[in-house]
Amino acid sequence: MSPRLTAATATRVLTQLRHDHRTIALVLLLPCLLIGLIAWMFDGTPVLDQFGPLLVGLFPLLVMFLVTSVATLRERTSGTLERLMTLPIGRADVVVGYAIAFAVLASVQALVVVGFAVGVCGMDVAGPIGLVILVAVLDAVLGCALGLGASALARTEFQAVQLMPAVIFPQIITCGLLMPRDEMPQLLEWLSRVFPLTYALDAMQKLAAGSGWSDVRGDVGVVALFIVGALVVGASTLRRRTP
């Protein structure tokens, strides 16, 4: 793995994203719009304070998964990745370069979403706002990593979109957002332990309740391990399709 080649890949992807105004609008504006609608619907109630931090962690993950999986698959099908693999560049350089580029976009997204939820919508978080931003960034980066890994399973952009229900929806159902995990059937509670979204939203729940770093560092560590694991899967499935 070469830092120079990794940086060159990240720079190329960021340059492409900078000129893709629709994607930037989707990434930055859609989560804010959804959170704003919820704040408007439940104005004067504690709903936003109770569920807002969870949505701040969930929406960036969903959007970044979709954007990353489709964008990466587009590069696969257009032959860009195929041409890259003919050059003296390692698979890790390509995957980490893509991950860095999308992580930069994810970080900007997380800052915008948290700032909008707290500063505009008035969401109240009892825990440190810096940790809320950190977890939101990790959640968005997790969406990028899962999208990179999932893109290897699809052959068309439509298939990449179809992967979202298969990869994300089971996690939403079992992560504790709809029902406390300790009240679920035991099999589903066990299943929730192997999904990264469980730990991402658990950290947000703790921060919303006023917890600090010592209470969420375990969840943050698990999310970071899932990010690394998804990138390893993405690198292992990246290969030339033609001799």
Automatic annotation (TrEMBL):
Coiled coil: none annotated. One of its GO terms (biological process) is response to antibiotic. It is a multi-pass membrane protein. Pfam families: ABC2_membrane. One of its GO terms (molecular function) is ABC-type transporter activity. This is Transport permease protein. GO terms for cellular component: ATP-binding cassette (ABC) transporter complex. Keywords: Antibiotic resistance, Cell membrane, Membrane, Transmembrane, Transmembrane helix, Transport. Its main location: membrane. PROSITE patterns: ABC_TM2 (PS51012). InterPro entries: ABC-2_transporter_component, ABC2_TM, ABC2_TM_bact-type, ABC_2_transport. Belongs to the ABC-2 integral membrane protein family. It is found in: Cell membrane. The chain crosses the membrane at residues 24-42, 54-73, 94-119, 125-148, 160-179, 220-238. Residues 14-241 form the ABC transmembrane type-2 domain.
